[in-house]
Amino acid sequence: MSTQRQEGSDGTARTTTLNILSGGAAQSLVHSLTPAFEAETGLRIAGDFGAVGAMADRQRAGTPTDVVILTAALIANLADEGLVLQSSIADIGRVETALAVRTGDTPVAAEDAASLLASDAIFVPDTKASTAGIHVAKVLAQLDIANVVADRLRVYPNGATAMRHLAESRDRRPIGCTQSTEIISTEGVVLSGILPPGCGLATMYTAAVATRAASASQALRLITLLTSPETSRLRSQAGFVSGPTSSTQPTA
Asked: Structure pTM?
């Protein structure tokens, strides 16, 4: 991801892209707002979407960035580190971690560990760097089945990739577990159910302008679009839920 510039009529260089580093949970929402943003500002959105921990590390490494969209906890950390503007921080909404099955498969309702044990493949995002993947690992340990299903885990860099592979799976009874936004936006899979009681996770996603943004005013405009009442329908369609933050929040 790089900042592209073109020369204006007055001979000055002008930025032509707005660079985003984002967790995969926000990918479909950003894409749905891209046409309106680009028509209004003339800037092309260049977004990188992946595991939130990896995206935060890229911001720390100096990747050219205008807007950062990560969990509220990670955005707070980046603000403390001086890497995003505190005054620009805005909540987008909560995202549930949920279960998925292939389109046409029998829905799975994980009321207890039995539903997870019945699957022959479990498609998940990075269990060390992604919000949902880290939580899945905790849930399997909490249910005392981590060792039993270890060889069934199919781990991918992010939830969107995991869901695409679930859709293409030839396994007999595969399931997936990632954030609902990534399930909803993937063709060939459907939301199936929530995690067992006591194992749920609703994560607040938050946007902020990078301290060294090349296009700070346009970055603020995108954040306004992401969070405004006028776009609440798009947020809901993408899988975001309004309201207060869940008491169960990841710290990374």
From this structure: 0.81
